[in-house]
Amino acid sequence: MLGVLTLQRPVFHVLAATWMLGVVVLERPFLSWVVFLRFDQDRSGFIDARELGEAFRAFGYSISPTLLSLLVRKFDRSGRGAGIALDNFIECCLIIKGLTDRFKEKDVSLTGSCTLSYESFMLMVLPFVSG
């Protein structure tokens, strides 16, 4: 995944690459805040759908506006429509990364699609569902 990241700022490239390995979240929480601030362009303290889209594009993901809106609704735990706070942004990113990694295991021809049985789908998704 490191080779996919193409960012304009070399320092951020290192931060994003480190984040992709999970090091920022697990070992360097301050860097998580730096990454969050990079995308919180209006300095609201929250990530909105547009900012989330920019973050995922920078991390090498292509996510539709419909899915971005759904992610913001799911991870905006304030209930006020303010956007995604830092801790929920980290959780959202880790879930998207995990689900994408699991999907790529099934998409062996790298076409962006795969055929799954119901059980395979459930085994792929349920570990990421909080209960």
UniProtKB/TrEMBL annotation:
Domain EF-hand, first and last residues per copy = 35-62
Q: Which residues cross the membrane?
A: 12-35
Q: Which GO terms describe its molecular function?
A: calcium ion binding
Q: Which domain of life is it from?
A: Eukaryota
Give UniProt keywords alphabetically. Calcium, Membrane, Transmembrane, Transmembrane helix
Q: Which residues form a coiled coil?
A: none
Q: What is this protein called?
A: EF-hand domain-containing protein
Which species expresses this protein natively? Chara braunii
